[in-house]
Amino acid sequence: MATRRTALGAGLGVLGATLTTGAALLPTALRHRAEGEPARTGTKAPARAVTVSETDRFRVAMPVPPVLRPVSTRGGRDVYDITMRPAECEILPGVRTGVLTYNGSFPGPTIKARSGRPVVVRQRNRLTMPTSVHLHGAAVTQENDGDPMDTIAPGADRIYHYPNRQPHASLWYHDHAHHMEAEHVYRGLSGSYLLTDSVEQALPLPSGPYDVPVALRDVHIDGAGDLAFSMGDPERTTIVANGKAYPYFRVAARKYRFRLLNSSNIRAFDLRLSDGSDIIRIGSDGGLLPRPHTTDRVFLSSGERADVVIDFSRYPVGTEIVLENSAPPGDLARIGQVLRFDVDRTAPDASRVPSVLRSLPRLPEPTGERTVKLTMAPPQAFMDDKVYDPGRIDAFVRYGASEVWTVVNANEVFPHNFHMHLVQFRILERNGQTLPPSDAGLKDTVNLMPGETVKLQATFDRYRGTYVYHCHMLDHSAMGMMATMKIG
After folding, report:
1. Contact 486, 392 (CB under 8 A)
2. What residue stretches are annotated with the Plastocyanin-like domain (predicted)?
3. Which fold would CATH assign to domain 368-487?
4. What would the DSSP string read from start to end of 298-361?
5. pLDDT per residue over 43-68, tens digit each?
6. Contact 125, 160 (CB under 8 A)
7. Phi, psi of 118 (to 5 degrees)
8. What phi, psi does 301 have (nearest 5°)?
């Protein structure tokens, strides 16, 4: 029987072999290299290996993305200015690589928001390609959702309103312009949006400098030092944390909260500590779990998040612990290490992980059911045997309905996942079996291995309008695995 790891590796390997270029699928506007991607300046990238050797890893510190400051806090709302523009950074030490950024940061700056306090973001597109900014996991009106076809033209500005009328959650924002979302996110257009509330604030969890967002992803850097992009590329085997390849992160001998985000296009991560020590998982896509659970592994498909607590007090000062990955594709020598934690000091620690984190309301009685089928035959991908058509409504949902959706990955080789805009859902069952603790809580993205079936329940009582649902392996959604629902 194929394991999760072998199934994932086989599927992504076949995809990479089938799609050596995106030219067969993508429109002319994307077949050439985007003019908004900067030319590199300064010293030419050395003609050497385009990744970091095992012996040269963990020599660069992992940065923490900057927290964006509002330009205004008047009127009971926070206003932010963000400019999408090209920039350069050192993903590999000493190699200047052109990226696309929010405010010049790779990944983008973190926005910290609070439930009940609105946020307004002025997005300025200073690239040469259209963009659309989606706040992943947020309940917003249709015009503020970042619909794939509701784009910001090059040189234009757009104001997004986020009411934050939902509980705490580790959200993220990223580009969603259809046919371009995969390349734009790959080149850097993503960032964290951390929403908190009184429930979360009342808990004695690690906070302040001990609450750290970590955006994980992979890249393929070519011999010129540039980000190479092709659909389904299996050579994205350099692992990056907060914009740096194989960094280290200095920690005190105390508890830390890490907000893990898989911002890769298609790569999954199966994470563990190199000594096999416990990791306490406390949160998922839609915020804290009802109860924490202790595990030795955390699996994240593209777009999924996990909040975890790691207690470094069990290690003496001077200990080095590597966060490892075992999810393919790629040789473990390339993809098997993510970052290293260096315990370099002691520190007081009054934090703790309570046995109960939050309560979730009882699910309402379902008002309807439907089935969604995910399939792919490269270079196209399908939702219910149809390629995405922005002029078509695929599902009509009554406002206020609470529906059970059965999502089926009908492929025998390719893994997929499933993301719904507007709503957080609850997973009811996976392959007809009892749910693992990792599927508890509120979710907006769920992974499906080849042949898997997941049942979920979503309540559509936030806003009326049209919203998309799609595979969040972004190369797949760019290939057409996306559909539109109309709530009204």
Report:
1. no
2. 86-197, 375-486
3. Immunoglobulin-like (2.60.40)
4. EEE-TT-EEEEEEEGGGS-TT-EEEEEE--SSS-HHHHSEEEEEEEEE---------S-----P
5. 333 333 378 888 899 999 999 999 99
6. no
7. -65, 155
8. -85, 175
Q: Per-domain residue ranges for the chain?
A: 368-487
Q: How many CB atoms lie within 10 A of CB 449?
A: 22
Scored b (16 or more CB within 10 A) or e, 114-142 reads: bbeebbbbebbbebebbbbbbbbbbbbeb
Q: Which helix (H) or strand (E) holds 295?
A: strand 287-295
Question: Residue 264 — φ and ψ, nearest 5°?
Answer: -70, 160
Judge whether 260 and 313 are in contact, CB under 8 Å.
no
Q: Which residues of 17-32 are buried (b: 16+ CB within 10 A; e: fewer)?
A: eebeebeebbeeebee
How far apart CA 47 and CA 94 sit, in angstroms, is 12
- DSSP readout, 114-163? ETTS-EEEEEEE-SSS-B-EEEET----GGGS--TTSPBPTT-EEEEEE-
Instruction: Say whether pTM exceeds 0.85.
Output: yes
Would you call 379 helix, strand, or coil by DSSP?
A: coil
CA distance 193 to 196: 10
pLDDT at position 227 over 90: yes
User: What is the helix (H) or strand (E) element at residue 175, kind and residue range?
Assistant: strand 169-175
Q: How many angstroms separate the Cα of 333 from the Cα of each of 29, 54, 74, 336?
A: 36, 7, 52, 6
Question: Average pLDDT, stretch 104-133?
Answer: 98
> What sign has the CA pseudo-torsion 235, 417, 170, 162?
positive
Q: What is the pLDDT of residues 186-218, one digit of tens each?
A: 999 999 999 999 999 999 999 999 999 999 999
Reported as type and span, the H/E element at residue 14 is: helix 4-18
Tokens coding 250: 């200095």
What whole-number distance in Å separates Cα of residue 290 and Cα of residue 287? 9
Question: What is each CA distance from 1 to 408, 413, 429, 431, in whole angstroms?
Answer: 19, 13, 21, 15
447: exposed, middle or buried (C-beta count within 10 Å: 0-12, 13-18, 19+)?
Answer: buried
Sole residue written with tokens 């830390």: 256
Residue with tokens 């309905």: 401
What's the alpha-carbon Rg for the chain, to the nearest Å? Answer: 21
